[in-house]
Amino acid sequence: MTEKGLFQLLNLNLHREKDRQKLDADAIVRAVQQDPSSADKKYKFKISPCSDQRCFPLHQAIALKAPAHVIHALSSPIALKAKCAGHRALHLALQYGAPQDVISVMLEKQPGAETKNNIYGNKPLHSACGHNVSLDVVMLLLNRCPDVLTKKNRFGDTPLHVACRKKAPLAIVSLLLSRHPEALNGKNRYDVTPLQLACQYETLDVVLMMLDSWLKDNMNRNSSSIESLKRYASCSESEDVRKLITHLSILYSNVRSKKNVSLVGVLSFFVRIQWWNGVDLAIDQHPVLVLLKLWIFTSTSWKIFSTWLSVVSNERGLIIDAKIHILK
């Protein structure tokens, strides 16, 4: 039986899982071994990641989510340097959520690829943060080029901006922030910070983690700084994120309308979402009001609140039997 050529082996519908499962990895490797020059040619596939449908086998294989040994076989110098719809092969792999072993092969085949831009000025780390890649892939790129954390794309976005806009998971956002804390306050070309983007797009756990870091700076503990987050939080799909920023703004508001949530309501909400730093802030800002009105907590709320109290009582020197206050 005659072996299929490289074009036939890769001429599959990359949008259909059934077609991607037909990918014959071993046959592709054999085809390249028999004719190495075939990896250096462009083919017009019926569906390809490139806008004109003409692309290198490497680009097509990446879009078909081919395994690492196939990517290794197809990664010729010509194909690695070529762009597909304005994106180099490494960027393309990250956009298709390639696993760590595939990214490792591409970095090995093309040293320095981790520093190259795509048409939007994104470094590979930007691309990784904007797509569904694993934490291992992000760590791999960071370890090879830690300076990329400070780099901005054409829109002035750092990788942290991109991660927050694209709803990256907590582990990835936390890693980026731990490696470059200063990025939290960095503004893009539109004067938008990563935290503002997180308030609009991210989940509650990510917003809380970033708020904890942001509020460590006393310069951010004021009405105007917190108000700058409200416009973005108001667009959030998460009701808890919207409430979080609204309740936080009440703590630092100079004017309290009767229509606003009460301070006790603020504290109750922070307890419900178990944001202990928020509870701490509430007591810092309004200790008398909080202690006078703690009786509103139910027995369930007390169990949660007592957890916070046991954690912070030694650190803050609070010698308060809160349960006695509640019972009274």
UniProtKB/TrEMBL annotation:
UniProt name for this protein: Uncharacterized protein
Top-level division of the source organism's lineage: Eukaryota
